[in-house]
Design a protein that fits this description.
Length: about 210
């Protein structure tokens, strides 16, 4: 299948420079009031294309689940990094996100020799790397990582929903929906809530994060 035009241009450029195992890295869960931040690192086969793989926020939950299965089957390697709420509170969400990304990369085998990272920041690893703003919309490897990270985090939050049903994490995945904020007022915070995140801060998050998309 053909990918969107230019979706594998970063990977092609890296291969032209002699790199072989090129990993895309992205995260899910920077904005929620509860739960971990989860990162994924994905190495795809050379010249891999898939018309449906794109930024996970532009996909429905059903599409993400289906494409995650495709990626799991067709990727050369996948690594996952999970940093839970207490660490987020201790080091801040940016450092926790970078730690999750590093953990995901270290979980890859074969190890990557080049990294494509969504966002502005690089990872503290001695591997050549490139930070790409809006990378999940521009790189098929990063887009694949965004899908795997989102699906992985959603599954974790579904597990937490069974432990803490009063917050309805099955529906809100820890994002600051009105229902979730009202539950915090009523029941207080549980052990997976981020105590460094003020509930009022949710008003400043993008609409897609408010809705948990």
């Amino acid at each position: 299948m053909r990918a969107a035009r230019g979706m594998n241009s970063f990977e092609s450029n890296a291969r032209e420079c002699g790199y072989g195992n090129i990993a895309g890295i992205d995260e899910a869960g920077r904005g929620p009031l509860a739960g971990p931040v989860v990162a994924a690192a994905v190495i795809l086969p050379p010249d891999y294309e898939h018309a449906e793989i794109r930024d996970s926020k532009k996909l429905s939950p059903r599409q993400r689940e289906r494409l995650s299965t495709v990626i799991q089957r067709e990727a050369v390697s996948i690594g996952i990094g999970v940093i839970e709420a207490p660490v987020i509170d201790a080091v801040n969400i940016l450092q926790a996100t970078l730690a999750a990304m590093k953990e995901a990369v270290l979980g890859l085998f074969p190890p990557p020799d080049y990294l494509l990272i969504d966002g502005l920041h690089r990872i503290s690893l001695a591997v050549p790397q490139e930070a790409i703003v809006r990378g999940d919309a521009r790189s098929v490897s990063i887009a694949a990582a965004s899908i795997v990270a989102k699906v992985s985090r959603d599954r974790i939050m579904e597990m937490y929903h069974r432990q803490f049903p009063q917050y309805n994490f099955l529906r809100n995945k820890g994002y600051g929906t009105l229902e979730h904020r009202e539950a915090i007022v009523k029941y207080g915070r549980c052990k997976i809530h981020r105590h460094s995140f003020r509930v009022a801060e949710i008003d400043y998050l993008p609409v897609n994060e408010k809705l948990g998309l």
